[in-house]
Write a structure and sequence with these properties.
Elements: H1 10-23, H2 27-54, H3 57-70
Helix pairs in contact: 1-2
Organism: Spartinivicinus marinus
Protein name: Toxin-antitoxin system HicB family antitoxin
Length: 71
Amino acid sequence: MATITYRTTDQKRDKLAQMAKEQNVSVNKVLDELVTIALTERDSYLRFSARASRGDANKALEILQARSTDD
């Protein structure tokens, strides 16, 4: 397991401590969960961007238009 030193303001530290207390977990756990969310969102964005770069916008619009006329 790695260790990261994180510097922040006293106000943010206090808010993190309050959040941890409300969730009955450690501040470390709160930060770990927040980092996990941020990394998951980044991974999703990168996957979406990679797929979008291989896509064909005109073909996608044709598919959407064809489906909208099916209703």
